[in-house]
What we know:
By secondary structure, the chain is of the alpha+beta class. It has helices at 11-19, 35-46, 71-84, 126-141, 160-169, 174-185, 192-201, 245-248, 256-285; strands at residues 2-8, 25-26, 56-62, 94-99, 106-112, 204-210, 216-227, 233-237.
Amino acid sequence: MISKISHGKGFRGVFDYLLSKQEARILNGYEGMTARELSAEFRTARNLRPDIEKPVWHASLSLSPDEHLDDETWQRVVESYLAKMGIDTSEHQFVVIRHSDTDHEHVHIVVNRISMSGATWRPVFDIRQSHEVMRELEREFGLKSGERKNDGFGEPKLKRGEVEKALREQEPPVKLVVSEAIKEAVADKPDIATFVNRLNERGIIAVPNVASTGRMNGFSFAVVGRVDGDGKPIVVKGSDVGAKWSKLKELVDYEVERDGEFLKAVKSDATRRLDEAGSKTKGADA
């Protein structure tokens, strides 16, 4: 099994997307059956904690192409998964939506991080934890392993202070957010433009280290909205997230002649965005 996790601000948007797919089916019982109705139900708990910026927790669970589960078994898998992730489903609203639009049978789980009593589930290392839970579910339900053999690719180098900071602030480390996004972005060996755009969709700015000739030497990365103690965007090198260029270039379709000008434009735009982010922070502190 393979899991993917994301966090978001609004329930309406994620429900609109998930229910727009052909043959999308809701597996667990809810009064609402449309995106509008479901988001209205979830808004009841959300309104208890207006201070929580991202109450949406979205996970997808995928089987191997030759595996199949009926609806009842999928529900048992999801219940076990959420319990192992530390989510009390008697307190937190969640919806399970089954899709059949790819060759990998999969379900999407949308959880309200805010409980009906106003308590908040705070995922910190949820992406890494989910990978471990996948191995447990494979053994529990006799499913095939979806663990990627990547020779260390996408494994971030986390320092003790970064882990302690993440636990203290209840927010996953930037390096972990970036590394997981990169692994997903290169899953089907995309061209370099698709790779950059996929990261951008996840709120990650890719900064190419590209020479005037168009030749690449690697990437640095920043997560939109994540800043250091001085209010400057946190920028991490590819080598810090297990994505140094010697490994990454084997997983993307890159050609100097084709991609050189594109990457130089990306670098210019990324530099501008990072400068603007730093300027906004300075202005707010003035």
